[in-house]
Amino acid sequence: MTLLNYKPIALCCLCLIALPLDAQTRPRPVTLVAVGDILLADSVGRMIRKKGADFPFARMKSTLQNADITFGNLECCVSKRGAPIEKRFTFRADPGLVGVLKRSGFTIVSLANNHTWDYGRNALEDTVQSVRESGIKTVGAGRNRTEAHRLVIIEKNGMKIGFLAYLGLIPALISESETEPTLSMASEKAITAEVSRARKQVDFLLVSLHAGQEMAQRSTPRQRGFAHAAIDAGADMVIGHHPHVMQLPETYHGKQIFYSLGNFVFSSEGRGSGSFLKATLYPGGKLIARQTKLDLSGGQPHFSSSLSSLLSSKPIRGRHRKERAAKRNRKPVGRTPQE
Ligand SMILES: [Zn+2]
């Protein structure tokens, strides 16, 4: 072997020596992307029949695929079974469509919302199964209450990232059951107990919360009660959805609460407003997150070219001071109507 053969090996060794030792061994942070409500039925279903299942996700696909973990709220059931329950809007998507979520980069979806039960418990069970079979983890629903409330852990870069999901709307149209498919319903008691328990098992704990008033720009006392309970019990961040528009985030005891990411793929006309959350989770516990507004026009979410679209997640400390004082006196929180 001539000296020339040794050259690449020697260069490699030199590169390693040039890097500081901690940079060679330091674990990589985990990147997380989260979006709000996703519907594969109704007007989105009709759009998909015309333009293909990948069309609504096409302009965000590389962003969704490039994160270590990509989260969304799937707000419909995916089944061929069941009949619509008695309510204003009921959404059921063809099971053949669920693969688009995997192709678009999703790794975990919450099913704890007010539409996965639209066609009854069997259709809810089918939804959990279809999504899992597509290779995506589900949180917030299951074959029984225990499964619906179960902590879901994703391991990346040597860290454990935990997810819990809750539906915080009342009146609850589905009752929790230990023997039938069900959703994870929110109560401050359940959130406090489950978050405290989960906290010990993971490096980061993220709580998905489907709650609030539709089309309202501000969070409700009930929403804030659940989110504060999650942070008080040890959650690192709350990822909210349901209002179909973005809501102001809050920094509470140093942790970020994103009350509503708004819509992602929810109507072919791009109704409501939506945003994209990017978070970096560093070894040691530091979490940095930023919410950015999306342009939903054409039913195809994408980054807006307008600078005004940037929604800063500036802390709004002290904004709810009065509320916290009221909470100490255990005043009941407001009721939220739902579809
Ligand atoms: Zn909803």
Question: Which short descriptors sum up this protein?
Answer:
single chain, 339 residues, alpha/beta, Purple Acid Phosphatase, chain A, domain 2, 8-stranded mixed β-sheet, 6-stranded mixed β-sheet, 10 helices, disordered N terminus, disordered C terminus, binds zinc ion
Would you give an account of this structure?
The protein is an alpha/beta fold and 339 residues long. The chain has one domain (28-328): Purple Acid Phosphatase, chain A, domain 2. Helix content is 27%, strand content 25%. It has helices spanning 3-18, 21-25, 42-51, 61-66, 99-103, 120-133, 145-148, 188-199, 221-232, 321-328, and strands at 30-38, 69-74, 77-78, 92-93, 108-110, 137-139, 141-142, 152-156, 159-167, 182-183, 204-210, 237-241, 250-252, 255-258, 263-265, 274-281, 287-295, 302-303. Strands 1, 2, 5, 6, 15, 16, 17 and 18 form an eight-stranded mixed sheet that branches. It has a six-stranded mixed sheet with strand order 8-9-11-12-14-13, covered by helices on one side. It has a two-stranded parallel ribbon with strand order 3-4. Strand 13 and strand 14 form a beta hairpin. Helix 8 runs parallel beside helix 9. The N and C termini lie far apart (75 Å). Zinc ion binds at residues 75, 113-114, 210, 242.
